[in-house]
Specification:
Helix content: 25-40%
CATH architecture of the largest domain: 3-Layer(aba) Sandwich
Shape: globular
CATH class of the largest domain: Alpha Beta
Structural class: alpha/beta
Strand order of the largest sheet: 3-4-2-5-6-1-7
Largest sheet: 7 strands, parallel
Strand content: 15-25%
Number of domains: 4
Number of helices: 21
Radius of gyration: 25 Å
Number of strands: 20
Length: about 550
């Protein structure tokens, strides 16, 4: 029986027609063909596995790296009355068991999980009892050690697929070089899979690089974006300290940017992300942890405060701009000394095999005391010069993925076994560090290029036919002319951005950047807010001496100023 995919699309999603390569990919998967799907952000990759899940029997198992993204996708499917759910670590045990029971009873068409879930207890054994018709691997570039966002648990998905009986596999990503594409197929065990590539051309994105010679020179280009283009906008910083400094500088000029970084609580990150998504003008300052799964089509500018580590990472991040097809600018602020930051990150991501063996031997030798060890203990033991060095965390991720240990340090950590020398060599091949440094060199070449920026990027991703003269980069057209042509007559934009961080109601909850007066301490600036079950705790900076303090609001006398 031939399926009417157009009718199924209208019935389940209400869309009048397919976009780009969607129909070809779906038809290929329904016929049992493995495939690698490369589509730019916003082109509808998720539909490629969602529709097959609804028109064929069995269960579609979707592996996704981001809990917030899978929650959003499941909620959208549930609103359409479609049988989908997810299982992840943020759910309590009872809820996870109930959802697994639904899958076992055949009530679901789509089940979303994180790659780490396959390390948990009997999960894989339970999944093996199900009839998996399609295994969809989202953000598939995470599979490859040569990709820009390698995640150790992704490297095990080929073995997971084999243990599930090698169901049809669909790997999806927005960015992957030809080398990474080949590695994805190899790791997942789908060497002959068809490749569907929609290209990477985004004519509405204007690419620009502005070289600066002092850190303080970076503020002016950001203010120009706010004044001349307006929001919504994202400024990416590599370091939290730079993010906080930029926040202060913008606040002094009347802006109230949102922020997103790893030191905020989970509730604060969710709240900041939600406010950005809901705003028509907001500016958010973020580390690269922000953006994956953010469904916001109207982002008008993205500024990189420091050079990113790879062209893959850069192109994925700027791909979040202009998804509505309207003009958006993507600007990189290039300061030569910033290259050392990414060089350091590269070193941290590549501990040598001897270092890994030392960490493993140390943990193994702790015996029953291993459950009490903390991350700081390991840093003090192995990182004598730079306690910010991230090599220990890299080792722990790799050991945990391989089942050598489980749990979190200082909470429920348990040591299981020593890795073999062959395992360590497979995790940390000798040439990985060199390849990562070459990736940084390609990013540096982009920043210093005197030729068409889009041609350079297209060649990097294997599209050599792109011609010079794109008209949408600062080599082929001046940024001033492009802005004048696309954003003329908009002086109220900066005013709107200054107001975007405000909340209209006078009784709104306290948030970062507010000022309050505390009895006995005077005027204080709110640094963070932690909502607990029975109280609200705030971290503040006292204006008179800049001392940082923490208070339970229920236990002090305070007022908003």
């Amino acid at each position: 029986m031939t399926l009417d995919l157009q009718a199924a699309l209208e019935e389940h999603f209400g869309f009048p027609g397919f976009r780009g390569l969607q129909e070809e990919v779906i038809a290929h998967a329904i016929q049992g063909g493995d495939c690698l799907v490369l589509m730019a952000t916003g082109e509808g990759k998720s539909l490629c596995y969602q529709l097959p899940a609804l028109v064929q029997g069995g269960l579609t198992l979707v592996v996704s790296p981001l809990i917030a993204l899978m929650d959003d996708q499941v909620l959208a499917l549930e609103k359409r009355g479609l049988p989908a759910t997810c299982i992840h670590s943020m759910l309590d045990r009872k809820t996870r068991q109930e959802r697994m029971s639904r899958a076992m009873a055949g009530e679901l068409s789509l089940l979303y999980v994180t790659p780490e879930r396959f390390r948990v207890g009997r999960f894989l054994e339970e999944i093996k009892k199900l009839s998996i018709s399609l295994l969809a691997i989202d953000e598939a570039h995470c599979v490859s050690q040569w990709g820009h966002d390698f995640r150790p648990d992704y490297s095990q998905l080929g073995k997971v697929r084999e243990s599930l009986g090698s169901p049809t596999c669909m790997a999806l990503t927005a960015t992957a070089t030809p080398e990474v594409q080949a590695d994805i197929k190899r790791v997942l065990g789908i060497p002959s899979a068809a490749t569907f590539h929609s290209g990477i051309e985004r004519p509405n994105l204007f690419l620009a690089v502005e070289e600066v010679f002092r850190p303080e020179d970076k503020l002016a280009p950001i203010l120009r974006c706010c004044e001349e283009i307006g929001g919504p906008g994202i400024v990416y910083t590599a370091l939290i300290r730079d993010l906080l400094h930029l926040e202060s500088e913008l606040q002094r000029r009347g802006f109230k940017p949102l922020i997103y970084h790893g030191k905020l609580s989970a509730s604060e990150r969710r709240e900041q992300q939600a406010r950005f998504i809901d705003s028509d003008h907001a500016l958010i300052l973020a580390t690269n942890a922000f953006g994956m799964g953010v469904d916001k089509p109207d982002i008008r500018f993205i500024v990189h405060y420091q050079i990113p580590r790879t062209l893959e990472a850069y192109y994925q991040e700027i791909g979040r701009a202009g998804r509505d097809g309207k003009p958006s600018i993507c600007q990189l602020l290039y300061l030569e000394e910033d290259v050392s930051i990414q060089r350091e990150f590269t070193e941290w991501a590549n501990p040598d095999q001897e270092f890994m063996q030392q960490v493993a031997n140390y943990l193994s030798g702790l015996g029953e005391r291993a459950h009490a060890v903390h991350l700081e203990d390991l840093r003090e033991t192995f990182l004598l010069k730079n306690r910010r060095d991230g090599r220990v965390e890299t080792c722990l991720r790799l050991l945990r993925t391989a089942g050598c240990c489980s749990g979190d340090l200082g909470i429920d950590f348990e040591w299981q076994r020593l890795p073999t020398a062959a395992e360590i060599e497979s995790w940390l091949p000798e040439d990985k560090r060199k390849r990562d440094l070459m990736g940084l060199l390609e990013m540096l070449r982009y920043a210093k290029s005197e030729g068409c920026r889009k041609r350079l990027i297209h060649a990097y991703f294997g599209f050599d036919s792109f011609l010079d003269g794109c008209g949408s980069c600062d080599v082929c057209l001046s940024a001033e002319d492009w802005v004048a042509a696309n954003f003329a007559g908009h002086s109220p934009r900066a005013v709107a951005m200054r107001q975007a961080g405000e909340t209209a109601t006078a009784d709104r909850p306290l948030e970062r950047g507010d000022w309050i007066s505390i009895r006995g301490h005077g005027l204080c600036s709110v640094l963070s807010v932690h909502q607990q079950r029975t109280s609200t705790r705030v971290d503040v900076e006292r204006a008179r001496d800049l001392e940082r303090l923490s208070f339970d609001l229920a236990r002090i006398k305070w007022r908003r100023t």
